[in-house]
Design a protein that fits this description.
Glycosyltransferase, three-stranded antiparallel β-sheet, mainly alpha, 6-hairpin_glycosidase_sf, 6hp_glycosidase-like_sf, 362 residues, single chain
Length: 362
Protein backbone atom coordinates (compact mmCIF):
# COMPACT_ATOMS: atom_id res chain seq x y z
CA UNK A 1 0.00 0.00 0.00
CA UNK A 2 1.19 3.50 -0.80
CA UNK A 3 1.81 5.88 2.08
CA UNK A 4 1.49 9.63 2.19
CA UNK A 5 0.95 12.31 4.79
CA UNK A 6 -2.67 12.76 5.84
CA UNK A 7 -3.46 16.36 6.72
CA UNK A 8 -5.53 17.44 9.69
CA UNK A 9 -8.40 18.43 7.44
CA UNK A 10 -8.70 14.74 6.54
CA UNK A 11 -10.54 14.29 9.82
CA UNK A 12 -12.41 17.54 10.31
CA UNK A 13 -15.83 16.39 9.20
CA UNK A 14 -15.61 13.07 11.03
CA UNK A 15 -14.60 14.76 14.32
CA UNK A 16 -17.21 17.26 14.09
CA UNK A 17 -39.28 -8.54 29.63
CA UNK A 18 -39.62 -6.61 26.20
CA UNK A 19 -40.19 -3.03 25.23
CA UNK A 20 -43.78 -3.90 24.39
CA UNK A 21 -44.52 -4.32 28.08
CA UNK A 22 -43.43 -0.77 28.88
CA UNK A 23 -46.19 1.82 29.03
CA UNK A 24 -45.88 4.70 26.59
CA UNK A 25 -46.36 7.33 29.29
CA UNK A 26 -43.31 5.94 31.12
CA UNK A 27 -41.22 6.39 27.98
CA UNK A 28 -42.42 9.99 27.72
CA UNK A 29 -41.45 10.63 31.35
CA UNK A 30 -37.97 9.28 30.64
CA UNK A 31 -37.63 11.59 27.66
CA UNK A 32 -38.27 14.64 29.77
CA UNK A 33 -35.94 13.52 32.55
CA UNK A 34 -32.89 12.41 30.60
CA UNK A 35 -30.87 13.06 27.48
CA UNK A 36 -31.63 10.84 24.48
CA UNK A 37 -28.23 9.15 24.72
CA UNK A 38 -28.96 8.18 28.32
CA UNK A 39 -32.29 6.70 27.30
CA UNK A 40 -30.54 4.60 24.69
CA UNK A 41 -27.74 3.53 27.01
CA UNK A 42 -29.87 2.69 30.02
CA UNK A 43 -33.25 1.74 28.67
CA UNK A 44 -32.06 -0.73 26.02
CA UNK A 45 -28.96 -2.14 27.71
CA UNK A 46 -30.29 -5.63 28.36
CA UNK A 47 -31.65 -5.96 24.84
CA UNK A 48 -28.37 -4.86 23.31
CA UNK A 49 -26.28 -7.23 25.40
CA UNK A 50 -28.46 -10.21 24.47
CA UNK A 51 -28.29 -9.22 20.81
CA UNK A 52 -24.53 -8.67 20.84
CA UNK A 53 -23.95 -12.11 22.32
CA UNK A 54 -26.29 -13.70 19.78
CA UNK A 55 -24.59 -11.93 16.88
CA UNK A 56 -21.14 -12.97 18.04
CA UNK A 57 -22.23 -16.56 18.62
CA UNK A 58 -23.78 -16.81 15.18
CA UNK A 59 -21.09 -15.06 13.17
CA UNK A 60 -18.19 -16.79 14.89
CA UNK A 61 -19.85 -20.21 14.93
CA UNK A 62 -20.51 -19.99 11.20
CA UNK A 63 -17.08 -18.48 10.52
CA UNK A 64 -18.59 -15.37 8.96
CA UNK A 65 -16.08 -12.91 10.41
CA UNK A 66 -12.54 -14.11 9.86
CA UNK A 67 -12.66 -17.24 7.70
CA UNK A 68 -11.20 -17.49 4.20
CA UNK A 69 -14.34 -18.69 2.45
CA UNK A 70 -17.40 -17.07 3.99
CA UNK A 71 -16.82 -13.35 4.42
CA UNK A 72 -19.89 -11.26 3.59
CA UNK A 73 -18.84 -7.74 2.70
CA UNK A 74 -21.84 -5.73 3.87
CA UNK A 75 -22.13 -7.68 7.14
CA UNK A 76 -18.41 -7.23 7.79
CA UNK A 77 -18.54 -3.48 7.24
CA UNK A 78 -21.66 -3.02 9.37
CA UNK A 79 -20.05 -4.98 12.19
CA UNK A 80 -16.88 -2.91 11.85
CA UNK A 81 -19.06 0.15 12.33
CA UNK A 82 -20.45 -1.31 15.55
CA UNK A 83 -16.96 -2.19 16.84
CA UNK A 84 -15.68 1.32 16.12
CA UNK A 85 -18.71 2.89 17.76
CA UNK A 86 -18.00 0.85 20.89
CA UNK A 87 -14.21 1.30 20.85
CA UNK A 88 -13.45 -2.40 20.32
CA UNK A 89 -9.98 -1.84 18.89
CA UNK A 90 -8.65 -5.41 18.90
CA UNK A 91 -11.66 -6.92 17.12
CA UNK A 92 -11.83 -4.02 14.69
CA UNK A 93 -8.22 -4.48 13.64
CA UNK A 94 -8.63 -8.23 13.26
CA UNK A 95 -11.59 -7.82 10.93
CA UNK A 96 -10.06 -4.95 8.97
CA UNK A 97 -6.98 -7.07 8.34
CA UNK A 98 -9.15 -9.99 7.19
CA UNK A 99 -11.00 -7.79 4.70
CA UNK A 100 -7.91 -6.17 3.25
CA UNK A 101 -6.04 -9.46 3.03
CA UNK A 102 -8.75 -11.68 1.60
CA UNK A 103 -11.59 -9.71 0.08
CA UNK A 104 -9.86 -7.65 -2.59
CA UNK A 105 -10.09 -7.57 -6.36
CA UNK A 106 -6.96 -7.35 -8.47
CA UNK A 107 -7.56 -3.59 -8.62
CA UNK A 108 -7.17 -3.48 -4.83
CA UNK A 109 -10.80 -2.63 -4.17
CA UNK A 110 -13.10 -4.43 -1.77
CA UNK A 111 -15.08 -7.02 -3.71
CA UNK A 112 -18.84 -7.26 -3.98
CA UNK A 113 -20.46 -10.20 -2.25
CA UNK A 114 -19.02 -12.74 0.10
CA UNK A 115 -16.41 -14.69 -1.83
CA UNK A 116 -12.71 -14.71 -1.15
CA UNK A 117 -9.99 -14.78 -3.74
CA UNK A 118 -8.09 -18.02 -3.40
CA UNK A 119 -7.01 -20.81 -5.73
CA UNK A 120 -10.18 -22.83 -5.25
CA UNK A 121 -12.66 -20.03 -5.94
CA UNK A 122 -12.98 -17.91 -9.05
CA UNK A 123 -11.83 -14.40 -8.10
CA UNK A 124 -14.50 -11.77 -7.66
CA UNK A 125 -14.13 -9.09 -10.30
CA UNK A 126 -16.80 -6.57 -9.27
CA UNK A 127 -16.28 -3.77 -6.75
CA UNK A 128 -18.94 -1.59 -5.14
CA UNK A 129 -18.53 2.13 -4.52
CA UNK A 130 -20.73 1.81 -1.44
CA UNK A 131 -18.57 -0.80 0.27
CA UNK A 132 -15.34 1.00 -0.51
CA UNK A 133 -16.56 4.44 0.58
CA UNK A 134 -17.83 3.02 3.87
CA UNK A 135 -14.58 1.15 4.48
CA UNK A 136 -12.65 4.32 3.69
CA UNK A 137 -14.74 6.32 6.15
CA UNK A 138 -14.28 3.70 8.87
CA UNK A 139 -10.52 3.61 8.28
CA UNK A 140 -10.30 7.39 8.65
CA UNK A 141 -12.24 7.29 11.91
CA UNK A 142 -10.21 4.36 13.21
CA UNK A 143 -6.92 6.18 12.45
CA UNK A 144 -8.20 9.24 14.29
CA UNK A 145 -9.25 7.15 17.30
CA UNK A 146 -6.31 4.79 17.60
CA UNK A 147 -3.44 6.33 15.56
CA UNK A 148 -2.67 2.95 13.98
CA UNK A 149 -0.83 3.36 10.64
CA UNK A 150 -2.71 0.36 9.21
CA UNK A 151 -5.83 2.50 8.90
CA UNK A 152 -3.90 5.33 7.28
CA UNK A 153 -2.64 2.87 4.68
CA UNK A 154 -6.13 1.48 4.05
CA UNK A 155 -7.58 4.97 3.60
CA UNK A 156 -4.80 6.02 1.20
CA UNK A 157 -5.15 2.87 -0.89
CA UNK A 158 -8.93 3.07 -1.20
CA UNK A 159 -8.83 6.78 -2.00
CA UNK A 160 -6.55 6.18 -4.98
CA UNK A 161 -8.24 3.05 -6.27
CA UNK A 162 -11.81 4.35 -5.96
CA UNK A 163 -10.91 7.43 -7.95
CA UNK A 164 -9.25 5.30 -10.58
CA UNK A 165 -12.08 2.81 -11.03
CA UNK A 166 -15.34 4.29 -9.67
CA UNK A 167 -15.01 7.86 -11.01
CA UNK A 168 -15.14 8.66 -14.71
CA UNK A 169 -15.25 12.19 -16.12
CA UNK A 170 -16.43 13.63 -12.84
CA UNK A 171 -19.18 11.04 -12.32
CA UNK A 172 -19.54 8.46 -9.57
CA UNK A 173 -20.33 4.92 -10.67
CA UNK A 174 -21.68 2.27 -8.31
CA UNK A 175 -19.74 -0.66 -9.73
CA UNK A 176 -16.57 -1.43 -11.60
CA UNK A 177 -16.51 -4.78 -13.39
CA UNK A 178 -12.92 -5.67 -14.22
CA UNK A 179 -13.89 -8.75 -16.23
CA UNK A 180 -15.54 -6.54 -18.84
CA UNK A 181 -13.71 -3.31 -17.94
CA UNK A 182 -17.01 -1.46 -17.65
CA UNK A 183 -18.87 0.79 -15.27
CA UNK A 184 -22.63 0.52 -15.37
CA UNK A 185 -24.53 3.60 -16.55
CA UNK A 186 -26.34 4.13 -13.27
CA UNK A 187 -25.41 5.18 -9.79
CA UNK A 188 -27.31 3.92 -6.79
CA UNK A 189 -28.24 6.80 -4.52
CA UNK A 190 -27.52 4.62 -1.48
CA UNK A 191 -23.90 4.30 -2.61
CA UNK A 192 -23.27 8.05 -2.37
CA UNK A 193 -21.83 8.35 1.12
CA UNK A 194 -21.79 12.10 1.64
CA UNK A 195 -19.59 12.12 4.73
CA UNK A 196 -16.94 10.02 3.03
CA UNK A 197 -17.07 12.24 -0.06
CA UNK A 198 -16.68 15.33 2.10
CA UNK A 199 -13.47 13.97 3.62
CA UNK A 200 -12.15 12.88 0.23
CA UNK A 201 -12.83 16.31 -1.25
CA UNK A 202 -10.98 18.03 1.57
CA UNK A 203 -8.04 15.69 1.25
CA UNK A 204 -7.50 15.46 -2.50
CA UNK A 205 -7.99 17.84 -5.39
CA UNK A 206 -9.02 14.87 -7.54
CA UNK A 207 -12.30 14.59 -5.63
CA UNK A 208 -13.22 18.28 -5.84
CA UNK A 209 -16.84 18.80 -6.88
CA UNK A 210 -17.93 15.20 -6.41
CA UNK A 211 -19.53 15.89 -3.04
CA UNK A 212 -21.83 18.55 -4.50
CA UNK A 213 -22.66 16.40 -7.52
CA UNK A 214 -23.48 13.47 -5.27
CA UNK A 215 -25.53 15.65 -2.95
CA UNK A 216 -27.52 17.04 -5.88
CA UNK A 217 -28.28 13.58 -7.23
CA UNK A 218 -29.47 12.32 -3.86
CA UNK A 219 -31.56 15.32 -2.88
CA UNK A 220 -33.28 15.52 -6.28
CA UNK A 221 -34.24 11.86 -5.88
CA UNK A 222 -36.93 12.88 -3.39
CA UNK A 223 -40.19 11.43 -4.69
CA UNK A 224 -42.91 13.75 -3.35
CA UNK A 225 -44.32 15.39 -0.24
CA UNK A 226 -47.13 12.84 -0.16
CA UNK A 227 -44.74 9.89 -0.52
CA UNK A 228 -41.55 11.35 1.00
CA UNK A 229 -39.04 8.60 0.25
CA UNK A 230 -36.31 8.51 -2.42
CA UNK A 231 -35.79 6.90 -5.79
CA UNK A 232 -32.90 4.47 -5.59
CA UNK A 233 -31.16 4.77 -8.98
CA UNK A 234 -30.07 7.62 -11.25
CA UNK A 235 -29.28 7.02 -14.92
CA UNK A 236 -26.58 9.34 -16.25
CA UNK A 237 -27.32 8.76 -19.93
CA UNK A 238 -31.07 9.38 -19.67
CA UNK A 239 -30.77 11.88 -16.79
CA UNK A 240 -33.67 10.20 -15.05
CA UNK A 241 -34.34 8.48 -11.76
CA UNK A 242 -35.47 4.90 -11.43
CA UNK A 243 -38.97 4.47 -12.80
CA UNK A 244 -39.40 0.99 -11.37
CA UNK A 245 -43.00 0.53 -10.38
CA UNK A 246 -42.15 -1.06 -7.03
CA UNK A 247 -39.87 0.82 -4.65
CA UNK A 248 -37.59 -1.16 -2.33
CA UNK A 249 -38.26 0.49 1.02
CA UNK A 250 -35.02 -0.58 2.71
CA UNK A 251 -32.89 0.81 -0.12
CA UNK A 252 -34.78 4.09 0.05
CA UNK A 253 -34.47 4.28 3.84
CA UNK A 254 -30.71 3.76 3.66
CA UNK A 255 -30.63 6.94 1.57
CA UNK A 256 -32.66 8.73 4.25
CA UNK A 257 -30.25 7.40 6.87
CA UNK A 258 -27.24 8.91 5.09
CA UNK A 259 -29.04 12.22 4.67
CA UNK A 260 -29.96 12.20 8.36
CA UNK A 261 -26.29 11.82 9.28
CA UNK A 262 -25.59 15.01 7.34
CA UNK A 263 -28.54 17.12 8.50
CA UNK A 264 -30.17 16.96 5.05
CA UNK A 265 -33.27 14.94 5.86
CA UNK A 266 -36.79 16.10 5.05
CA UNK A 267 -39.17 16.77 7.94
CA UNK A 268 -41.93 15.29 5.77
CA UNK A 269 -40.09 11.97 5.76
CA UNK A 270 -39.79 11.84 9.56
CA UNK A 271 -43.47 12.74 9.97
CA UNK A 272 -44.52 10.13 7.38
CA UNK A 273 -42.49 7.37 9.05
CA UNK A 274 -44.08 8.07 12.44
CA UNK A 275 -47.57 8.20 10.98
CA UNK A 276 -47.12 4.96 9.08
CA UNK A 277 -45.76 3.06 12.07
CA UNK A 278 -48.63 4.27 14.24
CA UNK A 279 -51.07 3.20 11.52
CA UNK A 280 -49.65 -0.31 11.32
CA UNK A 281 -46.10 -0.37 10.06
CA UNK A 282 -43.55 0.32 7.34
CA UNK A 283 -43.58 -2.33 4.63
CA UNK A 284 -40.92 -3.67 2.31
CA UNK A 285 -42.39 -2.40 -0.95
CA UNK A 286 -44.51 0.52 -2.20
CA UNK A 287 -45.75 1.74 -5.56
CA UNK A 288 -43.28 4.49 -6.43
CA UNK A 289 -45.94 6.61 -8.16
CA UNK A 290 -48.87 6.32 -5.76
CA UNK A 291 -47.18 5.42 -2.46
CA UNK A 292 -49.60 2.50 -2.09
CA UNK A 293 -48.32 -0.63 -0.33
CA UNK A 294 -47.45 -3.42 -2.78
CA UNK A 295 -46.09 -5.88 -0.21
CA UNK A 296 -47.21 -6.06 3.41
CA UNK A 297 -44.04 -7.80 4.58
CA UNK A 298 -42.35 -6.11 7.55
CA UNK A 299 -38.62 -6.61 8.05
CA UNK A 300 -36.10 -6.33 10.86
CA UNK A 301 -33.68 -4.23 8.82
CA UNK A 302 -36.32 -1.63 7.95
CA UNK A 303 -37.10 -0.92 11.60
CA UNK A 304 -33.42 -1.09 12.57
CA UNK A 305 -32.56 1.57 9.98
CA UNK A 306 -35.53 3.75 11.02
CA UNK A 307 -34.31 3.52 14.64
CA UNK A 308 -30.91 4.77 13.52
CA UNK A 309 -32.57 7.61 11.60
CA UNK A 310 -34.48 8.53 14.76
CA UNK A 311 -31.22 8.75 16.71
CA UNK A 312 -29.52 10.77 13.99
CA UNK A 313 -32.24 13.42 13.90
CA UNK A 314 -32.83 13.41 17.66
CA UNK A 315 -36.46 12.30 17.34
CA UNK A 316 -37.04 10.07 20.36
CA UNK A 317 -40.62 9.34 19.35
CA UNK A 318 -39.53 7.91 16.01
CA UNK A 319 -36.70 6.03 17.70
CA UNK A 320 -38.94 4.36 20.27
CA UNK A 321 -41.69 3.58 17.77
CA UNK A 322 -39.19 1.84 15.49
CA UNK A 323 -37.48 0.04 18.38
CA UNK A 324 -40.82 -1.34 19.59
CA UNK A 325 -41.41 -2.75 16.13
CA UNK A 326 -37.88 -4.10 15.81
CA UNK A 327 -37.94 -5.75 19.22
CA UNK A 328 -41.13 -7.59 18.29
CA UNK A 329 -38.87 -9.75 16.07
CA UNK A 330 -36.42 -10.56 18.87
CA UNK A 331 -36.14 -14.15 20.10
CA UNK A 332 -36.90 -13.95 23.82
CA UNK A 333 -37.01 -17.65 24.67
CA UNK A 334 -33.82 -18.35 26.64
CA UNK A 335 -33.94 -21.99 25.58
CA UNK A 336 -33.85 -21.05 21.91
CA UNK A 337 -30.40 -21.25 20.27
CA UNK A 338 -31.05 -17.82 18.77
CA UNK A 339 -31.96 -16.12 22.05
CA UNK A 340 -31.37 -12.39 21.76
CA UNK A 341 -31.17 -12.37 17.96
CA UNK A 342 -33.87 -11.36 15.47
CA UNK A 343 -35.83 -13.58 13.10
CA UNK A 344 -38.55 -12.49 10.72
CA UNK A 345 -41.96 -14.05 11.07
CA UNK A 346 -42.31 -17.26 9.09
CA UNK A 347 -38.53 -17.83 9.05
CA UNK A 348 -36.47 -20.18 11.18
CA UNK A 349 -32.96 -18.98 10.30
CA UNK A 350 -31.08 -15.76 10.94
CA UNK A 351 -30.17 -13.24 8.30
CA UNK A 352 -26.72 -11.84 9.15
CA UNK A 353 -27.40 -8.44 7.61
CA UNK A 354 -30.61 -8.04 9.63
CA UNK A 355 -29.10 -8.92 12.97
CA UNK A 356 -26.09 -6.60 12.59
CA UNK A 357 -28.35 -3.72 11.50
CA UNK A 358 -30.44 -4.45 14.61
CA UNK A 359 -27.31 -4.31 16.75
CA UNK A 360 -26.49 -0.86 15.35
CA UNK A 361 -29.99 0.35 16.27
CA UNK A 362 -29.25 0.18 20.01
Amino acid sequence: MKKKIISTVFFVILTTGTLGYVKSHYIKELIFKTESSQIEDNFYDKYEMNTLQAVKNHLLHNQLLYSNDNINTKVQILYLEYLLKNNQEKEFRQMAEAIMKSLMTKEELIAVGGYIQDESIQPVHKASLEDNLKMYKLAVRAYKNWDDPLYQEIANLLEEQMYKYNVVKGKLYSYYDSMNDIREGEVELGDIDLKALAVLENHSVDWKGLLQKGKDIVEKGFISRSFPLYYTYYNYDEKTYSTQEKLDTLESLLIVQDLSENGLYKSETIKWLKEQIKAGGIYEQYDSKTGMITSHQETIAIYAVISQIGKNVGDIELYTLAMEKMLSFQVKDKENRYFGAFIEKGHDELNEYDIVQALLAF
